[in-house]
Model the fold of this input.
Amino acid sequence: MTFLGIDVGTSALKAVVVDARGAALARASAPYATLSPQPGWSEQRPEDWWGACRAALAELRARVDLAAVEAVGLTGQMHGSVLLDGEREVIRPALLWNDQRTADEAAEIERVVGLERLVRITGSRSFTGFTAPKLLWLRRKEPLAFKRLRHLLLPKDYIRLQLTGELATDAGDASGTGLFDVAARWWSPELGDDLELSMGVLPVVYEGPEVTGRVRDDLATELGLRAGVPVVAGGGDQQAGAVGAGAVAPGVAMVSIGTSGVVFATADAYAPEPEGRLHAMCHAVPGAWHTMGVMLSAGGALAWLADALRPLAADVTPERLVVMASEVAPGADGLLFLPYLQGERMPVYDPQARGAFVGLSSSCTVAHLARAVLEGVALNLRQLLELTRATGTPVDEVRLIGGGAQGGVWPRVLADVLGEPVAIVEANDGAAFGAALLAAAGAGAFGDVREAAGVVRLRETVAPAPDAAETYGPLRERFAALYEATAAVGRAAL
Done:
């Protein structure tokens, strides 16, 4: 008995086949391009996702028997807007989670709805990457495309449409649109009225392990799947990643270091942070919610540094920079890095925020820069964890997934900066693994999602060094003051 998880990531589609014991039997991925027609714009072609899905499944089919798959789970990048016409054809490239063009529309939503009321309904303020401001932008800037709009899907749900012919989503991913009543776990007619948007374009909402459709007969032979295999709702990449990390009950928090950085903590009740400094969303676990703090550039900051240095040294990669960072003492000799390379979402909400190195001296090397990037990301994640606890959400254990969990010094940096142990999840297939577990729960292989997550295993736990607090205490204070100290100078450069 096996289960398939599919993850529509930011840079590639990933797929993994998992058995009922939680062992990953095979994995595959296929990349696609990101378009940036103007500075700050980020788009992808949904058709490229589907092409990547078919390629990844073809690769898996050569390794395992996909006909033995009992259910399929879907996950993917959140907030993206897939715009379809009445024939269910793509109108234009999808606007992604990291697209920054909608600052005016996001501000308009907060003004029209009212910030306090918006946070109460949606669990979040209106961020530029969210789906709702994208719709207002489309109506204002591309009225002919808006007039053609009949269906709006999130990225993973476009794959669902191709697999099953069904228009559907899940409560967790829908929570990141800015159009969802998170407490009621359904679309908000109030917001539709306020923003003069037709809620009829939005798909039916299911809970994470619920079956939303079945693989079409005409696709089964090509893909290697059995016709009629159920496809469950799944979740946004962070909710599915939390399932894959075993962060499915209060007390266990997930930290994800991928392109972005996330602190995710499960809650049994809906309790939005009053100022919207954290997201409060539906979990992929039915009847559960979660808080989530998101920073836009985590692993992405390290990738930026590698790209910036590559013209000078062709062998510079993020992995090489992690090795170099281990050669520098904790604290990077006082060098600090502010990781706001694409604006920032949390704990500071400022689309115009900019990054900075502070404390450079003639003794600084590339290794110092690398160490400062790792520490700057970890310091920002600590702020998100502190804010999570301040809301009353319990955090007793921290589990790490994503590229930052791949080994090297980054888990050590995170444990030292957080000042508490960090457990590394053994299966590093992330959201795709969690989607497969949701499929297993939906197929009845487990009693529920929390039982399915019981198969998650931990590789190791990294404890903070005895002198970590002495090293990082002063750095935390300096880092906390860094945004305000540099904000005016950064804006003056725009």
The chain has 17 helices and 24 strands.
